Amino acid sequence: MMPAAYSTRPLTLLFLSCLIAPASIRGDDLPDWENPAVVQINREPVRATFTPYATAADATAGGESSRVVSLNGSWRFHWSPTPDQRPVEFYRPDFDASGWGEIVVPGNWQTQGHGVPIYTNITYPFRKAPPRVTLDPPRSYTQHELRNPVGSYRRAFTLPDAWQGQRVFVNFGGVKSAFYLWVNGRRIGYSQDSMSPAEFEITDAVQPGENLLAVEVYRWSDGSYLEDQDMWRLSGIFRDVDLIARPTARVEDFHLTAQPSDDHQNATVQVEIDLAFAEGASPEGLEASVEITDPSGAAIGTAQAVAGTDPAAERFRTATLEVGNPQLWSAETPHLYRAVITLSGPDGVLECIPWRFGIRSYAHDDGRFLVNGRSVKLKGVNRHEHHPRTGRYVDRATMVRDLELMKQANINMVRTSHYPNDPVWYELCDQYGMYVMDEANQESHAFGTGSRTLGDNPDWELAHVDRGVSMAERDKNHACVAIWSLGNEGGSGRNLAAMRRAMEEIDATRPYFYHADRAVTEWMDIDYPTIAQVEAYFAKPQRKGVLVREFSHMMGNSGGNLPEHVDALYRHDQYAGAAIWDWVDQGLIKPASGVMRYIEDPATLSLLDGETWAYGGDFGDRPNDRDFCLNGVVGPDREPHPHYYEVQKAYQPVKMTLAPDTSKVQVTNRFDFTNLASLNWRWSLLADGEEVGGGALTPPDAGPGEVVSLEPPGFADLPEDGREYAGAVYAELAEPTEWAPEGFVVAREQFVLRESQFNVPPQPGGGELAVEHSDDEIRATGPATSATWRPSTGELVAWRVDGREMLARPLQPYFWKPANRNQAGNKYAERLGLWKSAAESSKWGGRVVPGSSGEVAVEMDTELADGVGQCQIRYTLHPSGQLEVAMTYEPLRADRAPPLPKFGVRLGLAGGVDEVAWYGRGPHENYADRRTAAFLGRHDLPFAAYHTEYIYPQDNGARTGVRWLELRSEAGLRIDGRQPLTVRAWPYTEEDLESARHPADLPNRDFVDVNIDARLHGVGGDNSWGKRTMDQYTLPADEAYELRFVLTPLDAGGE
Questions:
Q1: Signal peptide span per the entry (predicted)?
Q2: Residues annotated as catalytic (active site), given as ranges
C-alpha cells in the first residue's frame, strides 16, 4: 500500500508511485511488525524539526512554547516477555492498570529493570529469517525465552484550555523498534524506523478533560533487520514525546536554503513553505512572511511568501531575501542567522516558527570536500548515541559535554553512526560548529556487504527509501548537515539507488556518501586503512577521491600511528577526510544487583559505590560480542582516555616543525577559515624538565594554508651547562568560545633543542663488598647492602639496602608484554608467544666480573629461544646499595623469529607506592606509536593514576622517554636511565592482567610490578581484528638492542 506519509509530498510521491507491496510477501499472513510492506499506518508526513509559537515575540525569544506540551516523565508500564503474553486491551480507558509500575520516558526499558540488554555487533539477536523475528532461535539465545518482548505504556494528559479549536498532534522522537498508538481507546496508527520521528494527528480522538495515550512497543520487528548496528540492542520510547497544537491552516513544513554567491559578497536565502489545511479550512486570506535577523540580532528584512501561478499550488509558497556581506557559517565560524516564519489569517497571526540557520555551501570537486568554495579536510569521529545509565537516550547536558570535548580535540566532523541522532544534537552542532555526516538508519550487516543483501532485495525497497526520506526531510534545514550518508554495511543494489533518488528530490545541495556501492557515492571508502593502503590507492590517478568513514579503531589501549594517518590526509588532495571509530565506550553501568535501574539523577555519568562497567555478556545476554563495544576516545563517563590527547594533537589546526640547524619554528596554518593572528602565541623552555624561560610571541599573520616562521627568543644561544633543553610553542584562544575558555591551547609542539647526557652520579659510601659464589647463587654482602643472583636464570633474586629488602619478586630479563585489545585480535599471543617465557626457559650462565671502586659486577648470558639471539645482562652493585643494570641482545638465527614484545626487565618492588614522579613524556600514558601529545617534562601523579584502568583489563600505563622516575612511598625506588626508558608499574602482575575480564578481577598485590624497557611494542590501532602495529613501532628479532639504567633506593623523604 502507499504510505500516507508521502501523500502530501508531490515530488516524493512521483518517485514512490512505482513502489508497490512486494509480491513475494503475503501481507495478510503477517503482522504489521513482520511485514516490510508496512512501514507506517496513518503517520503524518515527516517534516523538518521545528517548534510552533503563538506570537512572533515568543518565537524570537525561544524557550518553551504554549503550543507544545511535553509528555516526558513518568508513564505507567507493563513488560511482557512475548507478544502472546501482552495485555491486549490495555489501551482501553477502563482497563485496570493500577497494579502496573512506572517507567521514565524518554528511556529504554532494559535500563530501568525490564528485560535484558543485548550487545552484538553483527549477529542478529533473533533467528535470521526475514521478515520474521519470532521464529525459533538457538536455545542459547536470550531471545529463545524472551521471544519478542512488548512494552505497554499508558499516559494520562489534559489539553490546555487555550488549545480549543486547534488541531492536536503527538510527536514521538524515537521508539525502538515498532509501535502502535491509541488515544482514548481509539487506534490511531503504527510506525517503525526507530531513529526517525513519528507524528500522528489525534484531533478527532482527544476530548476535554483527561485523555489517555496508550503505546504498544515491540522489541523486534521486520525493521530490526535494517537496524543491525554495532551497539547495545535496547528498546522503548527513548526520545522526547510532545503534544503539539496547530491551527486549522498551518505550516506543515518548510525548506530553507541559504547559499552564498561565488564571490561571497552576497547570499540568497530562500524559504519554501508547505501549508496544510484541515478539512473545511480555506487558503483565502492567508499570508506567510519570513523575517530575518543577523547573528547580532539586527534586522535584515522581511519578505512575503508568494504562491506560484498555478491555483493548485496555493499551498506552496516561497519567500526570497538577499543578504549583503554575509557572515558565513563553518565549523570554525558558526555564525547563525534567525528566520521567523509567520502565518497570518484574516483574524491575525495563526502561528510563528523560528529557525536559526547558517549561510554556507557544500560541494565536492575532484575528490575534495568544499565548504564555501574552500577545500576542507574532515577530521572526524563516529558517534553512537550512548549514555551509561539511560542507554539510547542522551540528555542535553551530556550532548554539550560531547561537543565541548570534540571541539577541544580539534574534531571538525561527526558521523552519526549509524542513524539520525536526536534533533537536539543537530541544533548544538549548528551552534558550536561541527560538520555532520548524517546517516540513514540502514544497516543489515549480518547479510554481508555485497549485492545479495537487503540492499538489493525489492521486498525491502520501501523500507530503505522511507528511512532515507525521513532523515532528509527532518534534517534538511540544518547548517551543520554537510553530507548525506545512505547508511552503513547494508550491501549494494537497487534499494540504495532508490534511496538516493528519493533523497535528491528533497535536497540536491549536499554531497552523498555510501561506502559499499560506488554507483551512489561521491567518494570511495577504504575500510580501516593502513598508511600503505592509502598510498597504494593514490599511487595512480583516481576518478573518485576517498572519504574514510571509519579508521583508527580505538578499542581499549589504542590510537597508534594516528599522526601518520593525518599526514597522509594532508598529503593527497583527493583525500577528503576520515572518521575515527569511535567516540565513546559503550559501557553500561551494572549495579551489584545485576539489574539496571534509574537512580535519583539518571543522567549521572560516573560510577557510584557498588557499580561496575558492563559490556556484552555481563547481563547474561546471548549472543554477544563481549567488549567490542568499548572503542571510545572517551569512556562511558566522558573521561578522556589517553588516546584522546593524541587525537587532539594529531588533529590540531597548526603544524609546527623545527627548521634544520636553526632555532626557527616553521608554522603551517591548517585552519580552513581562520588567520593565525587571531590566536595568542607563547613559548616556553625547559632545562632537565624544569621551566627556565618563556613568554609571549607576536601572533603570526598567516591565512589558511600559509606557512610562516617564528623565532622564540629562548631557543637560540643555549648555555653549555650539560643540561637537556626542550622548547615548546603554544597557540591559544584569544577569546572564550562556546566550547573552551580564553587561553585554551588549540595547538602546541615541543622540540628537543639539546639532548640529555644521561649522566647518573654514583651514590657514595657503604664500605667493602664480599662475594660468595656457589653453583646455585652468587651473593655480595657489605655493611649497607647485599644482593643474591641466580646464575641459571639470569635473575637478581634478593637486594637489601640498609636492612630493607627491595624485591618481593626477582629482577629478571623479561621480553613479554600482555596484549591490548587490538593485539588480541591479530593473534599477537600466537605470533609472539615465543618470547613469553624466553628468558626463564633458557639456560643461563653467570660469573663475577672484577670491578673498580669497590663495586661487584655479575654478568650472565644465554642464547634465547633456541638460538634466535644472544642476551647478556650485567648487574653492578655499588657498596652504597645502588644497582646498575646493563643488558644487550644480539641476533643470531633470527631471520624467521617474530618481533620481541619488549626488550627489558621486570621486578617486584616490595611494599606499596603512593606517588610516581618522573622526568619523561607525560603526564598521560604514552607508547612509541602514541606519544606526540605527551610532552617531555617533570610530572607527578598518585600511583593509582599512573596506570590506566580500562574497562577490559589489558596492557597499560607506559611512560616513554623516561630520564628518571621515582616510585615514592615510605621507602621507594629511583630509576635513572642511561638512555630513554619506557616504564610501567602496576599493583598487579602481567599474569593477573591476562586472566582478568573486569577491573574488579585485578588483585591489589603487596608489591608493585615494575617493567623497565629500552623498547616496547606499540599499541597499534588500524583495527582490532587482524591488522598489526606498524613495523617501525615493533622490535624485529634481527636487530640489536641495549638497555642501561641505575636503581637507587629512596628513604622516607624521597632522598
A1: 1-23
A2: 489, 550
